[in-house]
Amino acid sequence: MTVTLDDIRAAAERIRGHVVETPLLRDELLSARLGQPVWLKCEYRQTTGAFKLRGATNAILSLPPEALTRGVVTASTGNHGRALAHAARALDVPATVCLSRLVPGNKVQAIRDLGAQVRIAGASQDEAMAEVARAVAQEGMTEIPPFDHKAVVAGQGTIGLEIGTAEAVLVPLSGGGLAAGVAVAIKALAPGTRVIGLTMENGAAMAASLAAGHPVEVTETASLADSLGGGIGLQNRVTFALCRALLDDVILLTEAEIAQGIRHLGRAGHVVEGAASVGTAALLAGKVVPQGPTVCILSGANIDPALHARIMAEAA
C-alpha cells in the first residue's frame, strides 16, 4: 500500500494542535428508524469548515525546510485551496492557489483573506493546473495536490483513527483522498468493518473509474453534491488503487436523495453541503442497510445559505 496505518498515525501526531478533533454525535432519529446506532462524524465543524485541513496541514508539515522557504502551490475549486491557505498561514509558509475564472468570487476572496497569493489562470481546472506546473518548474514551489498525494491521504485518514468501533463507515467519495485515507485506517484496525463510498449519480469520476478498472474521464454535471465532482487524474498514483483495494461498495445517489439527506441533517441542527449528506441520504433511501453501529462522515459545511433554505422548505 502507498499509505499505511503507520503513516496515518504519524500524521495524527504531526497535525495535533493544528486541527480540531471533531465530535462523533448520535443521530437519534435515524437510529430509532433503522434499529441500529447511527453516528455522525461532524467533520464540517473543522476549522475551515471541511475535512481538507487535515491533509493540507500534514502535507506542509512533511516538507523539508528548503521546500517551505520556496513555498507551496496548488490548484483548487475552493475547499482545498482554503485549507492549504489556512495551514500555510498558521505555519508561516508562502502559499499560492491557482484558480480558474469559474471559481465563485466568495471562494476566491476567502482564500485571499487567509493570506495566500491567488492566481486566476484560464477558464478550467486544467488551465489552473498548468499554472501550477509552471510555478513548480520555474519558481521552485512544491505542489500539494487536493487528493492524489500520500501525505494528503494520510492526513485525511486521521479521521478514521477518531471513529472507533463500527460495523460500517459511510464516506463521501470524490477524488478519493478522504475515502482512501479513512479506509486504510479502518481496515487496518478493524478488517471486518465495511467502508462504503457514496457519491452522486451523474459525473462521479471515481465510481466510473472503479467500474472501468482504470482511471477515466467523465462529463461533469451540476449536482447538490458539487464538491464530489471533478476528475481523479488519468495518471492517478495513490487514491484509485487504494479505493479499488479497500472500499467494500460504492453507492450512487439521485439529487432528490441528496436533498433529503440535507433536509434530515438540517432538521437535526447540522447545516451541511450536499457532499456531507450522502451517508444519511443512502440510509434514508434504503441503499445502505445498517447491520450494526454505522458512522456517516459529514465532510463539509460549504453550502450557499439561500440554497440550503430552499431545500429545507421543500416537501420531504
TrEMBL record:
Residues 16-300 form the Tryptophan synthase beta chain-like PALP domain. GO terms for molecular function: L-serine ammonia-lyase activity; pyridoxal phosphate binding; threonine deaminase activity. Its cofactor is pyridoxal 5'-phosphate. The keyword Lyase applies. Pfam families: PALP. It comes from the Bacteria. CDD domains: Thr-dehyd (cd01562). GO terms for biological process: isoleucine biosynthetic process; L-serine catabolic process; L-threonine catabolic process. Keywords: Lyase, Pyridoxal phosphate. Belongs to the serine/threonine dehydratase family. PANTHER family: L-THREONINE DEHYDRATASE CATABOLIC TDCB, THREONINE DEHYDRATASE, MITOCHONDRIAL-RELATED. This is Threonine dehydratase. It comes from Paracoccus versutus. The lineage of its organism: Bacteria, Pseudomonadati, Pseudomonadota, Alphaproteobacteria, Rhodobacterales.
